[in-house]
UniProtKB/TrEMBL annotation:
This is Mitochondrial enolase superfamily member 1. GO terms for biological process: amino acid catabolic process; carbohydrate catabolic process. Its cofactor is Mg(2+). Keywords: Lyase, Magnesium, Metal-binding. The gene is LOC106069168. The lineage of its organism: Eukaryota, Metazoa, Spiralia, Lophotrochozoa, Mollusca.
Amino acid sequence: MTDIIISLTVEDIRFPTSLEKDGSDAMNKAPDYSCPYVSISTQSGISGNGITFTVGRGNNIVCEAIKLLSHLVVGQDFNSIVKDFGTFWRTLTSEDQIRWLGPEKGVMHLAVAAITNAIWDMWAKRESKPLWKLLVDLEPEQLVSTIDFRYITDSLTKEEAISILTEMKSGKAGREEEMKLAGYPAYTTSCAWLGYSDDKIERLCKEAQAQGFTRFKMKVGSDLEDDKRRAKILRQTMGPDNLLMVDANQKWEVQEAIDWMRELVHFNITWIEEPTSPDDVLGHAEIAKALKPLGIGVATGEQCQNRVMFKQFLKAGAMQFCQIDSCRLGGVSENIAVILLAKKYGVPVCPHAGGVGLCEYVQHLSIFDYICVSGSLEKRMIEYTDHLHEHFETPCKIRDGCYIAPEVPGYSIDMKQDSRAAFCWPDGHVWRDLIQKGLYKE
Ligand SMILES: C[C@H](O)[C@@H](O)CC(=O)C(=O)O
Ligand SMILES: [Mg+2]
């Protein structure tokens, strides 16, 4: 039986997070967490929502890119899509003329992510399962059929992917129980955005510890003396045994990254994230080699364009922590491809979640990773940021510093109608007020 997709709409939703410097870092000094919000529905009345993430200006361009792709979605049979998701995914990334705008990178790939995330949400809702559970219950062959293996077969074939998933069937039920009871370990970035004062960092770190967090990330890269002072505050507040990660958001040259991190080494740092350009595989490899004797790994991925780039980072020893991004990669299927690649190369996956809705999303991916692919929590944790959860119908839940497995069907991204109306750019009343006060320009 067919179930034709009859509509795809997109809204430009933005939050004025830059007013409080929430989300600020060395490269993005004043981000306004934003998302194109896609809604898709079928003739039988099933619907799904999806987002991708931007930091404000340009969100409208991604909305336009989504509209440009919509003719490839509307009119398609939803049941046929989920039967052969990989083929459908390729139609979105390989449209004869639009492909020139990527391929599989930048604005067009963000658009693919929003659309396919919405379709996965719709699929999970139809099965009355949270997305992670849909993934866990799919047979290896069907799960693998959602992936486009083009350009990665030299490193991971369909057959290898199926055998990884088949081997990991053993112990799945126990791991699923564990995720429901104890959850997946998290770290918080929310104490130490670059624009926060020293007092605020100390206060937020204490509050986060009281909530059960033992792992923290701090933004670095603008001024070395500032970084040392802030790292000292954090270390003193969190104590010597808790984990500290730092994130430079692409600020440095390769040698500069190595030198800067040598200056911070005595703060006992687990990883340096995005030390340099996200495209510089060999540069990352050089940094990783230099920092290995200091016990510091390199983490990257939030701006890693696609599975092909991840393949190179993983093969070159250029990332010790693989930071998949639910909205930068082309949705769930491409994230699964990278999770499988990471397993093959023995690199732990620690998803990026600094942005609106990303915590809601990546919890599903990591829980699936643990149950079906890695089977391990060693060196693995999901980022948590404490912003904007109140706008979602089913926000992620953190207990004792861990994400608790979601129970509600879908991909946890339904945004409240009131929030969408208030924060719609530029006509939502929140934006109208801010524009009128002269704080923003249309
Ligand atoms: C602009 C975003 O807030 C970015 O700083 C997030 C990020 O790098 C992270 O969460 O990691
Ligand atoms: Mg980062």
